[in-house]
Structure formats: structure tokens, C-alpha cells
């Protein structure tokens, strides 16, 4: 018996020795599981608390950065794409809870970043994958979050928290790894913070204008091949813009100038662009009246396209109001109906606010609705050469059903066209009837 036990130990040692033929990732998995011997337990106990403003306390295990952080908790139902979610600047001020129970299994890579930074408050997941396995992986999720100073927690009942958010609406929470803080202190912090009314755009927008060049890489292009470059000049307002919006514009032949959120409308108009894009961005659209003012000064003068925050700002600039939804839409599986064509797109979404269509002036058309709750998902105002979507046609992550919001298939001339810029065609300059507009779809 003793001999058998000894040989078993030896073969395990062989297995984990650096000379064994196993891959680095499988070794690191096993070494994490078997690394006791330094006096510490080989498992981790709860070392973090998420305290919600409703008084509930959720014990969890921390990964990534440590500390104390406040934010609004929202749940995201995407099955894939956690890296794009982590780098979507629209999550500034929010904890993202992933309803998919296992996160981290594909690690992170250099190509899937949607911005240069992670602006979210933290990540909440059920199970952190103990191994990473993907040909593009350069780093595991925990190391990535630590480097970017983002707090994460796992081994927390994400299903129970999601049900609470669905029933009671979005909640403010405080996440802490600091044992010196009492539950009451953390509860007080969460009750005294509010995301409504905060200008979160100014913290995520670029500081000065720049040119964007990259289009979608050939191997990832899912639409018709790349057309001629620089056919149109688009000025893109960066309210927290995702890189894939810029890549898709470039793929459809645009030269793009990205400008900060505070860039004056007069300077934009001086550039004489073919179109202006108002991007996605974090927080409450009512907290950024300066951006609404800029939008007001541009619409009607040049074709415009609004995405998510951009759509909400357009709604306000037209005289409409926005409201906060109960728990918003965050995920890659939201059905949207295009009311003009009847076509249903499965879309990528991330928003907590929506435009109230009843408050919009005559002539503004609701073009899309979210089929989960009937909320307004798209607008058009042909008289002002304006289109906008509440969701994310650029996806990343998410399905590509809505990509045609950017452009049409290759035209006979060989040039790809940007759909919203078609409304500035010479033929329609004399006056654009809404029936003309319909024909663009
Ligand atoms: N993705 C976005 O642009 C988000 C828009 C807005 N901040 C909201 O939460 O509704």
C-alpha cells in the first residue's frame, strides 16, 4: 500500500513539474488548485461585500482590484463579449452583473477593446472560470481587471440579484473588500449616492479632436467587402464612443474626425462634413444640457445619426423628454421591430433611459420599437435629415442584424454608401418627403 501511495505522489509531481508536456494554461489551473503549502488555505473565503441600497448584503469573493466602490447595479444578459462590455464607456458609474453564470473562460485579448480604458465601477459574476482557453487569449480576466484597477466579485448569487433588480428596478450598491468598514457605513454610502443628474460624459470623452482610420479587419468583416476609403467625411461626437462604431463607419468608406463632447457646433459646421454622428455615452441625458444645445445647433444643417445616448440627446434637442427605465436594457438578445419593413432584428443594447415618443413634435417618426416592452428604439425626422437608434447597430458584442443601419450593400458604382448620408443626395436636396425616406430601406 505504502509503495502504491508513493508512486502515485511521484506521478502527480511529474504531472505538475515544469518539464511535463502540459500546456501553460492547464498547468496554471492545476497549480492554482494545488498550491497550498505556504500556510494559506488552498481555497478562498468570501472577502467582499456588495451592499445594495435596499439593505441587502451579498457576500462574495473578490478578484481584480480591491477597495470600496459605489455604482448602480445593472444586469447584462449577453452570453459572450465580456471584454467589449468591460470597455464600453457607457457603463461608467455602473456595476455590470453578467447573468451568464461562467465568465472568464476566453480570457482577454488586444483586439476586442471598445475603448482605451475600463470606465465601469465593477464586475459581478457567478463563477470565475479557473482556466482560460482561446487562441486569442493574452491574459486572464483577473489580471486584466487588476491592471485596470477594476473591482470584480464572484461566487455571488447573480440570479437572485437579477430577480431583485427586475422586481424593484436598478439599485445603487457599494462593493467593498475593506473589513474596517461596517455594513451600516456601506449602506449609508449606497443610500447617499445617486447616478441621476450626473454628467458622466465629461469623464469619458476624448480631450481633443483626432482622426480615426481603422476599419473592421478583413478576417472579421461580415458584410460586403470594404469599399473605397474617405468617400464621406463624418464628424463623430465622442460622448463615450465605442471603437466599433468608428470601425463600421470606416468600413463603409468614411473619413472620420472624432471630437470631444464639448466641441462647439460652429466648429463642426466649419468642417463642412457630409454627416455628424452623436455617439453612445454613459449616464443621464438630462444631466448634459450643453450636449443637447450642441445637437440643436447642428440638426437641420447636415444629416445626423444618433446612437443610444446620441439618440436620447436628439430626442431632447427636438423638444422631447427622456425618462429613466425600471432596469433598462443590457444584453445582446433584444428583439427590435423596424416598423417600416416589419423586419425584426436581434440587437445589442445598453441603456437605462429612453425617449418618450409622445413628447416629440409632429413629423418625427418612431421607426423602431423594442419588442420586449414596446419602448421607442429608433426615430427619423426626414425634414431635418435625422435618424437615430436607441440600441447598438455596431454590436461588439452582439449579433450583426442591425449593421445595415450604417450602410447598404455595394452599389453598382462599387462605392459603399452610408445609409444616413444618402439623405443628402443631390436628388433629395430640394426637399425630402418621408416617402423618399422610406425608399432607403
Ligand atoms: N449606451 C448608451 O449610450 C447609454 C445611454 C444612456 N447613458 C443610458 O443609460 O440610457
Automatic annotation (TrEMBL):
SUPFAM superfamilies cross-referenced by the UniProt entry: Carbamoyl phosphate synthetase, small subunit N-terminal domain, Class I glutamine amidotransferase-like
InterPro entries, alphabetized: CarbamoylP_synth_ssu, CarbamoylP_synth_ssu_N, CarbP_synth_ssu_N_sf, Class_I_gatase-like, CPSase_GATase1, GATASE
Entry GO terms, CC: carbamoyl-phosphate synthase complex
Domain of life of the organism encoding this protein: Eukaryota
GO MF terms held by the record: ATP binding; carbamoyl-phosphate synthase (glutamine-hydrolyzing) activity
Keyword hit for ATP-binding: yes
E.C. no: 6.3.5.5
Domain annotation Carbamoyl-phosphate synthase small subunit N-terminal: ranges: 46-176
Gene3D superfamilies linked to this entry: 3.40.50.880, Carbamoyl-phosphate synthase small subunit, N-terminal domain (3.50.30.20)
GO process annotations (BP): 'de novo' pyrimidine nucleobase biosynthetic process; glutamine metabolic process; L-arginine biosynthetic process; pyrimidine nucleotide biosynthetic process
Reaction equations catalysed: L-glutamine + H2O = L-glutamate + NH4(+)
Pfam families: CPSase_sm_chain, GATase
Listed pathway(s): Amino-acid biosynthesis; L-arginine biosynthesis; carbamoyl phosphate from bicarbonate: step 1/1; Pyrimidine metabolism; UMP biosynthesis via de novo pathway; (S)-dihydroorotate from bicarbonate: step 1/3
Keyword terms, alphabetized: Amino-acid biosynthesis, Arginine biosynthesis, ATP-binding, Glutamine amidotransferase, Ligase, Nucleotide-binding, Pyrimidine biosynthesis
Database matches in NCBIfam families: CPSaseIIsmall, PRK12838.1
Primary role: Small subunit of the arginine-specific carbamoyl phosphate synthase (CPSase). CPSase catalyzes the formation of carbamoyl phosphate from the ammonia moiety of glutamine, carbonate, and phosphate donated by ATP, the first step of the arginine biosynthetic pathway. The small subunit (glutamine amidotransferase) binds and cleaves glutamine to supply the large subunit with the substrate ammonia.
Similarity comment: family membership: Belongs to the CarA family.
Subunit structure: Heterodimer composed of 2 chains; the small (or glutamine) chain promotes the hydrolysis of glutamine to ammonia, which is used by the large (or ammonia) chain to synthesize carbamoyl phosphate.
Name of the protein described by the UniProt record: Carbamoyl phosphate synthase small chain, chloroplastic
Organism: Vicia faba (Broad bean)
Amino acid at each position: 500500500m505504502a509503495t502504491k501511495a508513493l508512486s502515485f505522489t511521484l506521478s502527480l509531481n511529474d504531472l505538475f513539474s515544469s518539464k511535463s508536456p502540459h500546456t501553460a494554461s492547464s498547468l496554471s489551473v492545476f497549480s492554482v488548485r494545488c498550491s497550498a503549502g505556504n500556510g494559506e488555505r488552498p481555497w478562498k473565503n468570501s472577502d467582499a461585500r456588495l451592499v445594495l441600497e435596499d439593505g441587502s448584503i451579498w457576500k462574495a469573493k473578490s478578484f481584480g482590484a480591491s477597495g470600496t466602490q459605489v455604482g448602480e447595479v445593472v444586469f447584462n444578459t449577453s452570453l459572450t463579449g465580456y471584454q467589449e462590455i468591460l470597455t464600453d464607456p457607457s457603463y461608467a458609474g455602473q456595476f455590470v452583473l453578467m447573468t451568464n453564470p461562467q465568465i472568464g473562460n476566453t480570457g482577454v485579448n488586444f483586439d476586442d477593446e471598445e475603448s482605451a480604458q475600463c470606465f465601469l465601477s465593477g464586475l459581478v459574476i457567478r463563477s470565475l472560470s479557473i482556466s482560460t482557453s482561446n487562441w486569442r487569449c493574452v491574459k486572464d480576466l483577473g489580471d486584466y481587471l487588476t491592471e485596470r484597477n477594476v473591482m470584480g466579485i464572484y461566487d455571488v448569487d447573480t440570479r437572485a440579484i437579477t430577480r431583485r433588480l427586475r422586481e424593484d428596478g436598478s439599485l445603487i450598491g457599494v462593493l467593498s473588500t475593506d473589513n474596517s468598514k461596517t455594513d451600516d457605513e456601506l449602506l449609508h454610502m449606497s443610500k447617499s449616492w445617486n447616478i441621476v443628474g450626473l454628467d458622466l460624459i465629461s469623464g469619458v470623452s476624448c480631450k481633443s479632436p483626432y482622426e480615426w482610420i481603422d476599419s473592421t479587419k478583413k478576417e472579421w468583416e461580415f458584410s460586403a467587402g470594404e469599399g473605397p476609403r474617405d468617400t464621406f467625411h463624418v464628424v463623430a461626437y465622442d460622448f463615450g464612443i465605442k471603437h466599433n462604431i468608428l470601425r463600421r463607419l470606416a468600413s463603409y468608406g468614411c473619413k472620420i474626425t472624432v471630437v470631444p463632447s464639448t466641441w462647439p457646433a460652429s466648429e463642426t459646421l466649419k468642417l463642412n462634413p457630409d454627416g455628424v454622428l452623436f455617439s453612445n455615452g454613459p449616464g443621464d441625458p438630462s444631466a448634459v444640457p450643453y450636449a443637447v444645445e450642441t445637437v440643436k445647433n447642428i440638426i437641420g444643417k447636415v444629416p445626423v445619426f444618433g446612437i443610444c445616448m446620441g439618440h436620447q440627446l436628439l430626442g431632447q434637442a427636438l423638444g422631447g423628454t427622456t425618462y429613466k427605465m425600471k432596469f433598462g436594457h443590457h444584453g445582446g438578445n433584444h428583439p427590435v421591430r423596424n416598423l417600416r419593413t416589419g423586419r425584426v432584428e436581434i440587437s445589442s443594447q445598453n441603456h437605462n433611459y429612453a425617449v418618450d415618443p409622445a413628447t416629440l413634435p409632429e413629423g418625427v417618426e418612431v421607426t423602431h420599437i423594442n419588442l420586449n416592452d414596446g419602448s421607442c428604439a429608433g426615430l427619423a425626422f426626414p425634414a431635418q435629415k435625422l435618424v437615430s437608434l436607441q440600441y447598438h447597430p455596431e454590436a461588439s458584442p452582439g449579433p450583426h442584424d442591425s449593421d445595415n443601419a450604417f450602410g447598404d450593400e455595394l452599389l453598382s458604382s462599387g462605392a459603399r454608401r452610408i445609409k444616413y448620408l444618402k439623405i443628402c443626395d443631390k436628388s433629395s436636396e430640394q426637399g425630402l418627403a418621408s416617402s423618399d425616406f422610406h425608399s432607403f430601406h
